[in-house]
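Please, structure for the following, as tokens.
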Amino acid sequence: MSDRTASPIRRFEYQQYAQNRVNEMRTNTTMKLTALAAAIGLLVSSGVFATELDSGTDSLTLGIDAVDEIKITSGSVTLTIDQATSDGGTVLLPETSSASSWAVTTNSPSTATRKIYASIPTKMPAGATLAIEFGEASSVEGAAGGIGEPVEGVTFTSADADAAVKKVYDGLYQIVTSSPSITYTFSATVEAPIGDASRVVTYTLTDS
């Protein structure tokens, strides 16, 4: 068979091949569209594309108040002076406890730092001294905020007036503190009266 005779045949075969490819593409496209339509139908039936029939609004009143809270955890402190520092001829041995702790939560800004004051209802007996030392705070939430610092050398003695108030911590702001200790040291001279010298210490968080 000559090339002239074969050429129409080859052209026919090519046309048939091309038509078959077109039919396959149409079939694939139809199947894909059918699957897409089914998926959309499923979404609509499940409410994902549900028609909005109505709506409503709610007005919320939101606000943040100033929060200033202090917590004192008591360690049932008992301090009894019952011996000298060594043998006779030496001073009475002071007693110390760090069993108590404190914690503060405040959202006050740095322009209005918070302070902690201590007070006792009646002054100490003659010759007796109560020293109070607050441990330094650290933050338990986010940024450190204002951890401030304890006031050193705070003591209550017989030289104070009754209901004396003394600052024990300064500079707190925007902080949730850990629970550092409160250290009490009770000391006395031999002139201090023998007997009970118990006191209740009240701690107050203030803005000045």
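The chain has a mean pLDDT of 86. The longest strand covers residues 95-106.
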